[in-house]
Amino acid sequence: MRFVNTTSLKFREVFEMEPQKSKKGYSILSHRWTLPEDEITYADVGSIGSDIKAKAGYAKFSGACALAKREGYDLIWIDTCCIKKTDSAELEEAIKLMYRWYSMAKLCIAYLQDVHSAA
Q1: What is the DSSP pairing of strand 27-31 with strand 107-111?
Q2: What does DSSP say about strands 75-77 and 27-31: parallel, antiparallel, or unpaired?
Q3: Which residues lie across from 11 on neighbouring strands?
Q4: DSSP labels for 40-109?
Q5: Fewer CB atoms < 10 Å away: N or C end of the chain?
Q6: Using an 8 Å Cβ cutoff, are 111 and 62 in contact?
């Protein structure tokens, strides 16, 4: 399973049960996808520069990482970038296991793009 490290914003590969053995476990982002070109992808995580930070989805990605870190989590799983969608076998496995991954997360962060704070 591939996670994003909430400090470095880089990938961390772990064995399937490793996060559950930790007291902390891992966090997960639940969200509604935006336009595909706005989302942070697997390829983007490997090369975060000013062009990636300019994407509309970067605030969601970095904000979820920051919140998870503040809550004490070193790892977060985000479907838009933790799945290598160009690898059909990986994509198929992820689709089959996604419910399990959500149920095993210790913290689920819900990103509600259409909810605005009161002024």
Answers
A1: parallel
A2: parallel
A3: 4
A4: --HHHHTT-SHHHHTSTTHHHHHHHHHHHHHTT-SEEE-HHHHS-TT-HHHHHHHHHHHHHHHHH-SEEE
A5: C
A6: no
Distances (CA, A) of 110 to 27, 49, 73, 82, 107: 11, 26, 15, 17, 10
SS3 36: helix
Instruction: Give dist(CA 9, CA 46) in Å, integer.
Output: 9
- pLDDT, tens only, 25-73: 899 998 877 787 899 999 999 899 999 999 999 999 999 999 999 999 9
Q: Is 3 helix (H, G, I), strand (E, B) or coil?
A: strand
